Automatic annotation (TrEMBL):
Coiled coil: none
Residues annotated as domain Amidase: 2-151
Gene: FAAH2
Organism: Nephila pilipes (Giant wood spider)
GO molecular function, one term: hydrolase activity
Protein name: Fatty-acid amide hydrolase 2
Length: 193
């Protein structure tokens, strides 16, 4: 299948082999039906590029499907597929899933193989970019993560109850980027309490 990364630089590029994540899904019985549109080089919160154009939200085509994995989220939300894979650096799975009413998961580093993602991550960014599942039902995250992490050797029991009292959560109140609005003071107050 083609793997353009939404860029004319890779317009004719076809994958020579399955990525390890795709191979694990196929081994579990998944049938690959397509590669979908993405923001060019996976670097935007909207899925639009010169090569394939804009991917719209299937619920309201005047709205975006998000990005950068917006082609996948639009396909799943339109019931064209039950499960998909995306890559996530700064929300590229989570943002489109949010925009189209889906569930997406950015796994813990090393849990899911990330080789073969396109475009290949810069070595400095490789430890921030992860491959993860996108789906219509939360239960499917459990099944897909069991498959995707099956060769990691990590003893994780997906679907078990979590004791939130001992859970640590990382968050940032300020990113200092012209592309991201500062946190609302009401939200900051709620986070601190």
């Amino acid at each position: 299948l083609k793997c353009t990364g939404g860029s004319v630089l890779f317009e004719d590029l076809k994958a020579a082999e399955d990525s390890p994540s795709v191979a694990l899904m196929k081994k579990a019985g998944a049938i690959v039906i397509a590669t979908t549109n993405s923001a060019e080089m996976g670097m935007h919160f909207e899925t639009r590029n010169i090569l394939h154009g804009k991917t719209c939200n299937p619920f309201d085509t005047s709205k975006t499907s998000g990005g950068s994995s917006g082609g996948e989220s639009a396909l799943i939300a339109a019931a064209g597929s039950v499960l998909g894979l995306g890559n996530d650096l700064l929300g590229s799975i989570r943002v489109p899933c949010h925009f189209t009413g889906l569930f997406g998961h950015k796994p813990t580093m090393g849990l899911v193989p990330n080789l073969g993602c396109h475009p290949a991550p810069d070595p400095a960014m490789a430890h921030f970019l992860y491959t993860g599942p996108m789906c219509r039902y939360a239960e499917d995250l459990i099944v897909s993560m069991r498959v995707l992490s099956s060769e990691s050797g990590a003893p994780i029991n997906f679907g078990q109850k979590v004791d939130f009292k001992n859970l640590k959560v990382y968050y940032m109140k300020e990113i200092r980027s012209p592309m991201i609005a500062p946190m609302n003071s009401d939200i900051a107050l709620a986070v601190d309490s």
